[in-house]
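look at this record:
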Amino acid sequence: MTPLVAVIKIGIDPVFHLGPLAIHWYGVGYAVAILVALEVALPYAGRHGIPRAKLGAISFWTIVMGLIGGRLFFDLQSGAAYYFTHPLETFAVWQGGMAFFGAIFLASATLLFLAWRMKVNFWVLLDAGVLFAAVGQPIGRIGNIINGDILGYRSNLPWATAYSNPHSFAPELGVGYQPVAAYEALVILLVLGFLVWMRRRGVPDGWVGIAYFILYPLTQFGLFFLRNPVNVPVIFLGLKQAQLTSLGVLLLGVPMLLSAWWLSHRPAGGSALDLDQPPAAPS
């Protein structure tokens, strides 16, 4: 192996202690990401017609179901058979392991159900939800950078990261790797900037959400070419699991969203996806 010339060396322990309490930087990143993202998503939803009295329950259940979806999708990708024989580890998030696509899927389904149940505009909720995701993701990736659990191939680039703490998740200590978690944080910040630009251009409700469902899979499809196959194995046709999921979202999920948006905005009348609007008067 070529000796390291100049890389970023990270020796932080992924776990720190406050007395007997063990706290994971990964969990701290998630908590901060949620709090900051709520400061963006809740005011946005309130400004666009969602009653404040309903936002607390909507945000709570969407976050809970998003976390559950992220963990379950990770379990599914990692080998569901293992968790059938080790059920107590199904939700062992402190050991690391969240798949963001799973969070997106279950959180979106939760928003759809709550829009129907509470009679509010689903498309406003979707826009607020993806802004929540795009704000929170880069913050959450700080925990991944500390953990060393989202890495690329070995590298001697000046911004490669080498880990020295034995509790890190890096495949080998002292070896430089492409910091894919940092790449993803930067790319999602660009996506966030584009979504904000779209919103300021006055696009209809729902288009910010649909744009995210196009852009996020594209970022994952590209970034996973850099992911180290030691951590993320190739599944089919030279592609990894997240890349196959990305293709599924682009080929199936996005057309379904576009069709639903078109149906809910037909001149003929209202839709179950736009429940804050009264039904059209009979002709």
